[in-house]
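Holo prediction — manganese (II) ion.
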Amino acid sequence: MIFELPILRFEQNALEPYISARTMEFHYGQVFHFHVNNVNRLVDEFNFVTASLLSIIQKKSGCPALFYNAAQVWNHAFYFEQLSPTPKIMPGGNLLLEINRSFGSVDEFKNEFDKASLSIFGSGNTWLSQKENGTLIITQELNAENPMTKNCKPLLVCDMWEHAYFIDYQCRRADYLSGFWKILDWDVIEKRFNN
Ligand code: MN
């Protein structure tokens, strides 16, 4: 085993009522774990043994299943890492300046991000990332796609696959999103931005 399921920094029921323990058991404990196991199996099968997760994603070549599973491991680690039962609820510092410059205000950013999330057709993620020229951009990426493969630096992701919200919200994706903002830790996003 090369890749391991990252340890959560909170208990599986800590994000309630926004994300239930049942969703965490399923999404983190089963879906995420499934992708970790698949990556370990596939790197072995395709002799990618020395490759890092990042290099598999960036190369995007060879076995599509390996790319999908590696990207989903990376995407899920990124998603769960930014959630917290005691989040910093507003961005600050240079990130706040850049959000204001790119979107007008934090509220306008959230609005646009929600719109992009709600209009994803099928499975995918919504991303906030930074372009090479420094501007921030919101994108929809279907399935396991990641803005890194388009030379953007990912800052924030919302998992819009049904498995992320269906147990708790059924088709009420707007409610899932309003819960998401309540447990999103801007401290993590700021660190990513400043890194
Ligand atoms: Mn997911």
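READOUT: The chain has two domains: 21-81, 93-194.
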